Each structure stands twice: as structure tokens, then as C-alpha cells.
Amino acid sequence: MNSRHLPHYLMVLPFVALFAAFFLYPIVSGFYYSFHDWNAVTEPHFVGLANYERIVGSRDFSRAMWNLVTYVVITVPLGIAVAFGLALLVDSFSGFWSNLFRSVFFLPVVLPAFLAATIWRWMYAPNFGLVNMVLGWFGYPSVNFLNDTDTMLYSLIAVDIWVSAGFNMVILLAGLKNIPVDLYEAARLDGASRLQQVRHVTIPMLAPVLFFVMTYGLISALQVFDVPWLLTGSSFTNYGGRQNALLFPVMDMMGRAFGSVRFGQASAYGFILTALIIVVTAGMFGLRAMRRKA
Amino acid sequence: MAQLDITGVAKTFGAVDVLRDINLNIRSGEFVVFVGPSGCGKSTLLRIISGLEEVTAGELRLDGERLNDVDPARRGTAMVFQSYALYPHMTAAENMGFSLKMAGARKSEIREKVGKAAAILQLERHMDRRPGQLSGGQKQRVAIGRAIVREPKVFLFDEPLSNLDAELRVQMRAELIDLHRRLKTTMIYVTHDQVEAMTLADRMVVLNGGVIQQCGRPLDLYDDPDNRFVAGFIGSPKMNFLSATVREVRPDAIVLDDIGGSSASLVVPFRGFDPSGRTVEIGIRPEHVRLAPSNERLDGDVEVEVTLVEELGDVTYVHASMPTGERVIARSDDARHRAETPSRIRLDPSRFLLFDAAGRRIRQSGAA
């Protein structure tokens, strides 16, 4: 090492030390424990791929993955559609109203998850909840949104879209503001209606932003944990709601770690999830590259 | 036929009057250029014609049909934007055919019309490229092609060459003149560049402060401006303006003193001068101001201090300072001069244009 560069290395040392301690070490040790049976008290016992096999073969994993796929397939496109609609709405206003709508729609993003979940547990409450009250006005019977296996997943999806729409809206709004007004004027002169302008100008021009929002939304959705955990009042020994209708992989992983005290299995679960996220994200980038070539 | 009549058009944005009482008749097949400084309202007037802006007052008629409430896409106009406004995700062909697609035209019809426009603009080899893969000139051609495909009655150009480099601008100017000759369609062109306006226009409309200052053929505006603004705006370098005092009024001439604060006295051919105007402003173009030979002195020569010499090769512009501090530019075709030297200029009184204190042209009696 050239002594001239010593101050440079010293300056990056604090970051490298913290990164190694809190990021690299957990990953490497987690990978090590994923091949061991370990309860954090006794010595780790090497079991090869047994942890991975046990997870993939378990009914809880199948249920969690099924819930996850259903959740992702609905939440990501629907969430982006809602956020896109809100962004178009806010963009059509200016000054005070634009700022007001933007703030109101962004509010759920800054709410702590427990508060958002508490609000929605109250909204979904069978007897006095706001949603059931409104349904009652139209003559519909009361629905047990968070305890009926037919409605639990959709109730969660509604809450998650409510929570995430504001964030996606702000990103999409920034993208909308970057589209030159000239293009809309040209489209107007070319005879495009407002809807055709959205279809032929807005959406193609927003494609890179939409890709980011979709990828980010997909990665977040694959790690869904806090809102369903709080909505179902889960604990480490009892989670996933009635008949595991709201059981998700991260929840299952946490249960195996802190409920069953099987840290080896939990580590293996983490790597399965990581592999899943990498494959899905790579797939997204691959699709985009193919579309660009076409 | 595409006669455009603009009657009493006004436009305000909040409390700001952008256009005031615009009256203009544009004849079929005419190439009209709106020219003026930034903020004069020329682009707003073009956008009003296109339908992108609504009028606050007044009326527009195209071939007798009232346009005010007609949708921009159905006005029979097509616009070429300063920024080109090409859809970046579409190929050149898709950009050019977009309006036809929106109108529900058949694919074969779109292909045929786009192909024709591409042939006119020599764009055939670039039709599969996206705007990002085209040069500035090619993008401009695609933007013009998009307008041609619509077969408009009136083409509207909003400073379409301002993003191009100087050489390409000259080339595109020639192409636009050629295009106008071939299509014989009414064209309205907005620019702040008076050279562009002079070279392209059948008729120029000079705007300032939202008001038409003068309208006419380019050389008429150059030789015979109605006011000081038009006189100063048209021509490069701009016209010289010098203060002077009317010492004597004769039946067919006036005698001017204190020209630019100098002791020179000149007899100016002028019929019917109103004796009440004692102070006037002279307007004279640089080509009518000459540097006096050092070995020759005439009565009307004015002592000046040369401040700057611009040698452009074929012509030299000598900037000088009058005794009052007023600036004057003289054109010299062959001489070489040095800055910061005293010199004498010779003004041609027969070329003087006179303006009153309000900047209005003082015309001879019997003159137009």
C-alpha cells in the first residue's frame, strides 16, 4: 500500500468496519448456520442441506408461498395502478390543492406500521368498524374481515395499498413532472384525447419510473411482514392468522427463529427468500432488456 | 385556399396584456413571419392560431369558418415545435403517422402518406429510427414531416431552427423555402432572428409589447420602417440613431445641427417638414455611414473616436463614439482601422430617416 493513500483508507475505515460488522458478518455467519442445527445455546451441529429440505417440504412453507404469490400478483399491479391514478389526479391540480392532495395521500407512508394496522383493525372491526358500518347503510351483513379466511388476504392487500400508494405516487409524480408539456401539446394537435395522451405519451414516457416502482414494490411485497403480523395480532408462537390465511415467508422465518428457536432453519429460510428476490428482480431486468431490444 | 383572418385578437394572462387588438389577414399560400424580441407575444399569437391557447377577445377565421371554438386537431393547422416535440418512444415513421392513427386511418393509408412525406423530406432511410438516434436536422425534418402528413391548410412553425447550429440553420432555411415553393401552403413562422425572418418571409409582422408594429415585405420594412422600434429591430448591425436639432426648414429640405453633439451641419432633402418639431432623431443604417478618407475633409464630416473594429473578412464594421457619447457603426468594405483612434465619419443625408420624440417616423408630405 502506498503511504500517500493511507489517509484515504483511514477515512473509509469506519464505514468498512461497520459494514463488515453489521452486514457482511451476519450474511456469512447466516450462510454458515443455514447448514447447521443451532438453538443459540448449544454448539451448532452440521446437518448439510437438511434445513433447506425441511423448509421446502413443510406445509407452512407451501401455504406461505401460495399466500405470497397471490398477495404479490394482486398488490403490485393494483398498488401501482392506484398510485398512478393518484399521481395523475395530483398532477392535474396546482398550487394549494396539489400540495394538499400530495400531503394527504403521502400521510400513510409516514405512519408507523403499528399505527396503520391499529387504524385498520378498528376500521375492519366486525361490529363497530367503519367499513362494516358503511356496508350496513347499504344493507350488507357484517363481515369479519380479519378472521374470515375468504376476506383476510384481500383485507391485507387493501391496507398495504393504502400504506404504499403515497410513496409510489410521489415517485410517479416526479416522473410526470419531467414529461415535457410540448409532447402533450403535440399529441393534442395530433387529435389524441386525454385518455389517448395517457396511453401514448404518459405511460411510455414514465416507463423507467414505472419499472423502478414495480421492482421496488415487488421486492417490498416479497418481504411482507409487519402489517399482516400486526393485523392478525401475531406472536412468535402463534402467527399467520386463522388457518394461516395471512402466513407469509418472513413471518414463518421469524416464527422458526424466535418461536421454535431453530436459528439454522431460519437462516436457511432467509437464503431461500434472498434467492427468490434475486431471481424475480433479475427476471424483471431481463424482461426490460428484451423489450428494449424488440 | 387558406385565408386566415385575425380580427381584434387580445390575450391576457392574469393582469398582463400579452396581445392587444391584433388585426391581420394572411393570404392563401403566403409565407408570413412573426418576428419580435422575447416576450413580444409572437409565440402566443401562433399558439392562439393553433388552438393551444384561447383568445381573451377577438376572432379567428380560416376560409371564413370561425375557429375560436374549434378543437386544435380539427382546425386544419399543423405545428412544428421549437423543441421538435417528437415522441421519444416512437420511430420516425410512428411519429409522423401518429395523427392519422388517432384519426382511425387504415394502416395502408398511414404508410402511404408517411412514405410520401418522407420522400419530400428525404427521410426514407431514417424512418425506423427513434428520435434519440437522429441528428438535430433529421429530427427537425421528422417534425416537419409529422405536420405534412396531416395535410394542413396552414403550417405553423414556432422557432423551429433555434436548436440547430449556424450552418444547419442556413441549410434548413433553404429547405423550408423549397418546401413552401413545392407545397404552396400557407405558412406562419415565428422567430426572434430577423435574418431568418428577412430570408424566409413573403411578409413580415413585427411585434413588440403585444402590438403589431408594422407588417409588410421584408425590404419594405428594412427601407421604410414606420417607427424607431422597427427601424432598430430590422437589420444587422442595427440602425444608428443620432440626436439632431432642426435649424432651418426649407420647402424641400431641412438643415440639421448638433448631429450627435458634433458641430457638423447637414442639409437633408425633406418636403413639408412641420416647423414645430425642433429636435429629431436621425436613423441611418451602417452601410450609409462611411469613414472619411484622412486626406479629404468635407463640411458635414463628423469627428468621432473609434472604439471597436470588427473585421469580418468581406466587410469591416467600425464602432465609434460621437461627442454626445452616442454610438455609431460605419461599414467599410476595404479599409483596415485601429481602435481607440480619432477619425471622421461621413453620413449620407439622403438616407436619413427622421423620428419624433415618441419614436414615430416623420414622413415627408406626399410620401406613403
UniProtKB/TrEMBL annotation, chain A:
InterPro entries: ABC_transporter_permease (IPR051393), MetI-like (IPR000515), MetI-like_sf (IPR035906). Belongs to the binding-protein-dependent transport system permease family. It holds the Pfam family BPD_transp_1. It comes from Jiella avicenniae. This is Sugar ABC transporter permease. The chain crosses the membrane at residues 6-28, 68-90, 96-115, 152-176, 203-225, 268-287. Keywords: Cell membrane, Membrane, Transmembrane, Transmembrane helix, Transport. One of its GO terms (cellular component) is plasma membrane. It is a multi-pass membrane protein. PROSITE patterns: ABC_TM1 (PS50928). The keyword Transport applies. It is found in: Cell membrane. Residues 65-284 form the ABC transmembrane type-1 domain. The lineage of its organism: Bacteria, Pseudomonadati, Pseudomonadota, Alphaproteobacteria, Hyphomicrobiales. GO terms for biological process: transmembrane transport. It comes from the Bacteria.
Automatic annotation (TrEMBL), chain B:
GO terms for molecular function: ABC-type maltose transporter activity; ATP binding; ATP hydrolysis activity. The keyword Magnesium does not apply. It is a peripheral membrane protein. InterPro entries: AAA+_ATPase, ABC_transporter-like_ATP-bd, ABC_transporter-like_CS, ABC_transpr_MalK-like, ABC_transpr_MalK/UgpC-like, Mo/tungstate-bd_C_term_dom, NA-bd_OB-fold, P-loop_NTPase. Residues 4-234 form the ABC transporter domain. GO terms for cellular component: ATP-binding cassette (ABC) transporter complex, substrate-binding subunit-containing; maltose transport complex. Its main location: membrane. SMART domains: AAA. It is found in: Cell inner membrane. It comes from the Bacteria. Keywords: ATP-binding, Nucleotide-binding, Transport. PROSITE patterns: ABC_TRANSPORTER_1, ABC_TRANSPORTER_2. Belongs to the ABC transporter superfamily. PANTHER family: MALTODEXTRIN IMPORT ATP-BINDING PROTEIN MSMX, MALTOSE_MALTODEXTRIN IMPORT ATP-BINDING PROTEIN MALK. This is Sn-glycerol-3-phosphate ABC transporter ATP-binding protein UgpC. It comes from Jiella avicenniae. The lineage of its organism: Bacteria, Pseudomonadati, Pseudomonadota, Alphaproteobacteria, Hyphomicrobiales. The gene is ugpC.
